[in-house]
Amino acid sequence: MPTDRATVPRTDAPLRWPVEPAQGGWYTTAEHNAVRSVLAESDDWQVGWKSAGYVGAFEDAFAGFTGSRFAVAFNSGGTALEMLLHYLRLDPGDEVISCAVNFVGPLLAIISQGGKPILAEPEPNTLNLDPTDVERVLSRRTRAILVAHWNGAVADLRPFLDLAERNPNPIHGAPLVIVDAARACGGRTPTGARVGAEGWATMFSFESKKLMTTFGQGGMITTDDQALAEQLRRLRTYGGTEHWGTNQMMTKAQAAVGLVQLARLDEMNDARIARAHQRTRGLADVEELTLPPTLHDRQHVYYRHNLLVPESWAGEGRDELMNVLASEYGLGSIISDRPAYLFHRLISARTADQHCPRAEQLTGRLLCPYLHPRISVAEEEEITGAIARATARVARTRSTS
Ligand SMILES: *Cc1c(COP(=O)(O)O)cnc(C)c1O
Questions:
Q1: Is residue 281 helix, strand or coil?
Q2: Ligand 1 geometric centre to CA of 105 (Å)
Q3: Phi–psi pair at 32, nearest 5 degrees
Q4: Atom 12 of ligand 1 has which residue's CA nearest to it?
Q5: Residue 323 CB neighbour total at 10 angstroms
Q6: H or E element at residue 146
Q7: CB of 180 closer than 6 angstroms to any ligand 1 atom
Q8: What is the end-to-end Cα distance of the chain in Å, rounded?
Q9: Confidence band for 361, pLDDT divided at 50, 70 and 90
Q10: CA 348 – CA 360 distance, rounded (Å)
Q11: CA 85: distance to chain centroid?
């Protein structure tokens, strides 16, 4: 069992900017008014909290926004992904390929539905799933390829769709391309489509930290597959009269606020992208840092602003930089995400024979300092300056030690 190293700088000093913003976007009077009117209306016992009307309106708006035929709302992204995989009725030994660098949730969903998670390496530029490495691990048992638009860096899905076409499963046909867009809502892919329009199905999360939020929890699946959409609607509301199902409905208040957040998503993302670009420009001359790619052919939404320290700093030097940022400048940062098999017992047991050295190497160099769309231009200058000075200081101590 690999041991877990400190992932967050340990400092007693209060942070001016926490490790992660607790809310990814922000609410305006429009969100407040929406929930007030739902509350006033639902207080009437003849109306109540039945959510179908509002949830249906939110789903229609979301499908329209993403350019997909169907959108099905859930109480979280994690449950949505579980139901999506439930639909596949995986047999023991059926494989789902996923990037070694991602949140634990998708791997746990694969495990919960009886699938075997197969890990593949990230490509070094965006740390998104590397199609070349997917080719290495594809097998006759592959049922799906799970591609995350990781930390907002929108992935090109076309190489994965091609690979799936060329490597059909002998029983089920081409593996399905499932997209984890929890961190990329509103982004655009290289074909010009919105995230959510491509691949077999796409999962979104509206958890508090995400780019838009429905009171801290919520999720959505988009797809063009009518049979899938119908089955997902049954699964989340007790299965109709024939099938197994459970209750994973989004509430009326969540859907009402989701409608407002969706209408404001581009505004919130544009503000976030502007701060990220400012940070990238401001750090351009810091030669020790590898900055996130700008990706001109698509819309990167910068859920996080990933920085990579030099290879010779991997691990210790990176931790030192995070500590200096926190203790000297009050700037929190997070390592998002280390390969889950390094610190999660169940995942490490289920992926025992698999190692992704490139993922370990890259995430040993990774840190994501605080980023939020409401940081002002002046405040961002302070943050950028802090990152540059802290990096110079770590470089000095490392060259003299
Ligand atoms: C947040 C997140 C999820 C899970 O979404 P929840 O709504 O929190 O269950 C899945 N994948 C990624 C990449 C995420 O960031």
A1: helix
A2: 6
A3: -65, -40
A4: 182
A5: 18
A6: strand 142-148
A7: yes
A8: 32
A9: very high
A10: 14
A11: 17
pTM of the model as a whole = 0.96
For a pocket test of ligand 1, which of 205, 221, 301 has the largest count of ligand atoms closer than 8 A to its C-beta? 205
Tokens of 61: 């708006």
Strand-pairing partners, residue 96, are 117, 144
Distance CA 273, CA 281 (A): 12
221 forms beta bridges with 72, 203
Q: Do domains 29-261 and 265-400 have the same CATH topology?
A: no
How far apart are the CA of 378 and the centre of ligand 1, in A? 31
Whether the Cβ atoms of residue 205 and residue 218 lie closer than 8 Å to each other: yes
**Domain 265-400 grouped into CATH 3.90.1150.10:** yes
Beta bridge partner(s), residue 173:
169
Q: Hey, where are the domains in the chain?
A: 29-261, 265-400
Pick from 251, 290, 273, 300: nearest CA to 387: 290
Q: Where are the beta strands (DSSP E) in 168-241?
A: 176-180, 201-205, 219-223
Decide if domain 29-261 falls under CATH 3.40.50.2020: no
> CA-to-CA distance for 325 and 316, rounded, in angstroms?
14
What is the C-alpha separation between 222 and 62, in angstroms, rounded? Answer: 8
> What integer is the mean pLDDT of 149-153?
97
Distance separating alpha carbons of residues 38 and 401, to the nearest angstrom: 62
Residue 88, pLDDT above cutoff 50: yes
Both structure tokens of 251: 């509430």
The model's pLDDT over 256-302, given as tens digits with 9 standing for 90+, comes to 999 999 999 999 999 999 999 999 999 999 999 999 999 999 999 99
In the chain, what is the greatest distance between 2 CA atoms, to the nearest angstrom?
74
